[in-house]
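=== Structural record ===
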Amino acid sequence: VDFANANGPWQLFLVTEDDPRNGLRQARIWGATGVIAMDGGDACAREALKGGVPAVVFNGRFRTPPPHIVVLRRDQENVGRTAAEYFLERGYRDFAFVGTAEADDWSELRRKGFADRLRKAGRTAAAFPSGSGIAALRRFLGSLPDGTALFAANDPVAQRVLGLCLELGITVPERLAVLGVDDDRVICEAMTPQLSSISLDG
């Protein structure tokens, strides 16, 4: 928007369809000369390419980007490394990771980056398996030693962890330090204590 305002006049059409392919079809009808899209698999890419319309796709999920499509991906492993460094700098010795309820690839990459960085420091992290359910997560949290530093894949996961800590009587940050990702102010500031979170450029 800033670029368009400085270099226009451009007409920007914001499409918030549940199925991005519908939005891309509509953009062609409007005569769009370019597409900027969040996410999108191969079907989205094929739709964007019809008529030769160039596209930039953020977090595009395709093995090989087709011609005329630029794919921007966040370095998810670096997010995990950042979390590990945050905790290591503060002197923590026990670590854990809780990912998303489903086995999302970005969550797994964050776990990998976290574990790899800890391994270089001679440490390991207990990881809660995706898809194991709330009862299993309660048991997992209850099994962690006091003073554990827990990295949550994102702020909603951290919120779920903090809610269970309250339920289980696990004090935060005294017994369990929790770090999220996204720096969502609504979630972070609504928690007691407030949630620490990694802010992402995207």
